[in-house]
Specification:
The structure is a single chain. The protein is α+β, with helices and mostly antiparallel strands. The chain contains 6 helices and 11 strands. It starts with 7 loop residues before the first strand and ends with a strand. The model has no long low-confidence stretch (mean pLDDT about 90).
């Protein structure tokens, strides 16, 4: 835990650049015991309040509130300010953006969730407009099907998967999928780019974690790290959009 906050830091051995940090938390830890007044709901949810208010699924409402509360706290911890000074803005298909008062906060953030677990990545952005991406999945989630693997894997990755024992392929595809999701989030494109068009390669099999650079368009740079943690596959990527 960090500064008494309700999160666990992972991936601390990764050298992703820009002092990147990845934190895990549970939805339950970030939910109030009773429904807050509307003023507090609006403060936490920001531009997502109307969408939250229209939701009928209690779990989805709780996840949205908890994720925004966690994002605000992580950004405030990074900047050394109060969470009440931070607003989180989200637009469909775009990475979340943090604002500090009336100005954009000098950090890049990314959010992922699976089940009751939330993952947040934060990195300095500054003048270079860096991007950060994080993605998590249950390590044993059954996703290996012919349709999905051909939609996700680059031809070189298909060959790598084919070289594995059949009982290793699902775990490897879960890792590959989270790695690609984190790269696409960091680059700000999301799934508007077809995942099989980029090649990140399977994680190293004989180590607990993998960190590597991935080819990026226009000479930009992307670095990705991936590991497992208590039954979760966690991947994060940092993208340098501009170079001096």
């Amino acid at each position: 835990m960090t500064r008494g906050a309700r999160w666990t830091e992972v991936g601390t051995r990764w050298d992703l650049g820009a002092d990147s940090r990845i934190r895990l938390a549970t939805i339950t830890d970030w939910l109030p015991l009773t429904t807050p007044p509307e003023t507090q709901l609006r403060a936490v949810l920001g531009t997502a309040f109307d969408r939250w208010n229209a939701m009928t699924c209690a779990f989805a409402r709780g996840r949205m509130f908890a994720s925004r509360a966690l994002l605000r706290a992580v950004v405030a911890d990074r900047l050394g300010c109060d969470a009440g000074e931070i607003d989180i803005h989200t637009e469909p298909g775009r990475p979340p953006q943090a604002r500090w008062g009336t100005a954009p906060a000098p950090v890049a953030i990314s959010l992922s969730h699976t089940g009751d677990t939330l993952a947040v990545a934060v990195a300095d952005s500054g003048a270079h407009d860096d991007g950060i991406g994080v993605d998590i999945e249950a390590s044993d989630r059954p996703i290996y099907t012919p349709t999905f693997v051909t939609a996700v894997a680059h031809p070189d990755e298909l060959a790598q998967l084919a070289d594995l024992d059949p009982d290793e392929r699902n775990d490897a595809l879960v890792a590959l999928w989270t790695m690609k999701e984190s790269v696409l989030k960091a680059r700000g494109t999301g799934l508007t780019v077809v995942p099989r068009r980029i090649c990140v390669g399977l994680p190293t099999r004989d180590t607990a974690s993998t960190t590597r650079d991935v080819a990026a368009p226009d000479g930009h740079r992307t670095r990705i790290g991936t590991t497992t943690h208590h039954g979760l596959r966690i991947s994060a990527a940092h993208h340098w959009r501009k170079h001096a």
